[in-house]
Amino acid sequence: MQPNLLKQKLASGQTALGTFIFEFNTSGIARLAANAGAEFAIFDMEHTGWSLETIRQLLATSRGAELTPLVRVPATEYHFLARALDMGAAGIMVPMVESAEQAQRMVQFAKYPRVGRRGSAFGIAHDDYRGGDIVEKIESANRETLLLAQIETKGGLDNLDAIAATPGIDVLWVGQFDLSNFLGIPGQFDHPTFLDAISRVVAAAQQHGKIAGVMVLSEAEGCVWLDQGYRMIAYSGDLWIYLSALRAGLKGLRAHADGRG
After folding, report:
1. Which are the contacts of 69, defined by CB distance < 8 A and separation ≥ 6?
2. Does residue 231 have a cis bond before it (omega within 30 degrees)?
3. Helices and strands in the chain: count of H runs, count of E runs
4. d(CA 22, CA 48)
5. Is 172 strand, coil or helix?
6. Pairing of strands 91-94, 68-72
7. Of the candidates 130, 126, 163, which has an alpha carbon nearest to the alpha carbon of residue 147?
8. Model's pTM, two decimal places?
């Protein structure tokens, strides 16, 4: 497996910035994100309806980009985690992680023995179709694969310390919209209950040597999360970035056009 520069950067105490991909399953999307400065891209399967075949093509066209490709799978199931990794994902995000047992299943499905139960196939996409020492490949994959557990339910909060203490979990990722929903305060991101929850996540991450991460929809919002100790930030998603930029440009042009008359 290629060295995971994202994982190395986070382990060194630095901050990593990237984005989500929800809509544009094109051959250039990873390179576009990389050229904009994204250090990682998370290809989403939870909300997009994208198949593993679509993810396969996105990962294949990401290999030459200067960013780390990650996949958010829709559920904690072996065939999602292991197959995404076999296709070349450098890491996996799992939604709605609610217990240490679920976090342990993530590790089991993503890591080779003796750490986990991932089935082995080599000389395929994840190792760039190369030969080489099998033991070295296993050790490299187990070491370099990044695992992100989403904390976005009351159950996840109730078992936060146990999830954070799970060996092999690297990132505690807040899903703020779901989290606020499950706390009974949908969209109330300034509510004391929500603020307490996100403080607990970053505290648990720091206590257990993990990283706290989140997706933000604006620069200002991202700065707030950074100041709270979150070190892995996804800036928005492809469709919202496109919508915002197009709307702003057209609005400005329309105002100028209308003002001339």
Report:
1. 30, 40, 41, 43, 58, 59, 62, 63, 88, 89, 90
2. no
3. 12, 8
4. 6
5. strand
6. parallel
7. 163
8. 0.96
- Cα–Cα distances (Å) from 175 to 58, 95, 167, 245, 254, in that order, read 23, 8, 21, 24, 36
161-206: pLDDT as tens digits: 999 999 999 999 999 999 999 999 999 999 999 999 999 999 999 9
**CB-CB neighbours of 137 under 10 Å:** 19
Annotated active-site residue in 47, 126, 191, 256: 47
In the annotation, is 79 catalytic? no
Residues near 207 by beta carbon (within 8 Å), at least 6 away in sequence: 161, 164
Interstrand relation of 68-72 and 171-174 (parallel, antiparallel or unpaired) = unpaired
The tokens for 20 are 């989500």
**DSSP single-letter state for residue 64:** T
In whole angstroms, give the CA distance from residue 236 to residue 249: 18
Helix (H, G, I), strand (E, B) or coil at 19: strand
Cα separation of 224 and 227, whole Å? Answer: 5
